[in-house]
Amino acid sequence: MLCSETNCSGTTSLSTHDTKIAILCLSSFQLPLVSALFRSMTVATSSAPPLGDHLCENGFECVEILPATNDAHGGVIVDLKDPMDPEVFASLLKSSLLQWKKQGKDGVWIKLPIELVNLVEIAVKEGFWYHHAEPSYVMLVNWISKTGCTIPPNASHRIRVGALVLNDKKEVLVVKEKRGRFHGIGAWKLPTGVVDAGEEIFEAAVREVKEETGIDTEFMEVLGFRQEHNSFFEKSDISFLCMLHPLSFDIKKQELEIEAAQWMPFEEYAAQPFNQKHEPFKYINELCIAKMENVYTGFCPRLVSSFFSKDFSYIYLNSKDLDKSSS
To answer: What is the model's pTM?
Structure first.
C-alpha cells in the first residue's frame, strides 16, 4: 500500500517527485510491486533533477533531505551550489534537521554561495547563525545536539609580518606610509603587511618588501613575534618580526601606499622619538643590535611532513642550537 504525506489509500498511485515526497507504508508481500512502480516512476520523471538525498529507515520510510557529508566531529556539512526554490529549501531543511537529530548529529554547517543569499533568512529562522563569510560564500552553523556546543569560533587572529632588512653598511630599509595609523606622524618604519591565505610567513615577508620598496631579499629568520588584541574589527593580530638579507639595493617605492622609502643608518632609525616612546619598537632595536653583535639566534623555517596530511608545512625553530644539541 502506498501512502502520500497527507493521506493513505489502498491505491497504487504515487505523487511525482517534484510535488510531494512519498512515504511508503509497506508490508513484506508488497515490496516487489512497489519496486516495479518506483522503477516505472523513475523512468517517467528522469528529466527532473533530484532536489536532495533520499534517506530510508528500515525499509518503511523514505524522506528527502539536503545533500550533506559527515565531518570529523560528529556533524554534517551541507555545501549547496545549485539554485534552489526557497520553499523547497525550507521543506528539505526541516526534514533534514529532524533526521540528523535522530541520527545523533551535533553541528550542522551550511555553506551558501553568494548566489543563494536568499536562503539565509530561512536557515536563520531554523536556528542557524553566521559563523564566517568569504567573498564568494557565507557559512551558517547550528548546534542540534542536547549537549553543550563545541563549535569553534571563527578565525580569531590575523597574521602580519614586519621585515627588518639590514645591509652590509648597517643600514635599515625603512618606509613612510601614505595611509594607516603611521601616516602623518613623521616616523620611518619597517615594511609590514598581512600574510595572505595559504602563504608562508617567510614568503609574505619577502613579498611585502618587494611590493613596498622594489628590493629583492632572502629570508633569514624570525626574530620574535607579538600578539595584539582588538586590532581589526575586534580580531587579534600576531605580528612576526622577520630578518631578511637584501639581494638588490635600488629602491622603487610603491606609489599606492608608500610615501617614501630609503636606506637609513641603524643608529638614526633607532634614535627616532617614536621608537623611543613605543616599547615594542624599542625591543625591535635591541633585537637588531643583538643580531649585529651575533649574540642572538632567531627561528628558521624547516620543512616537515605530517601524519595527517600529504602536504608539507614549516616549523620555525632555532636550528643552530638544535643542531648543536643533536650532534
So the answer is: 0.70
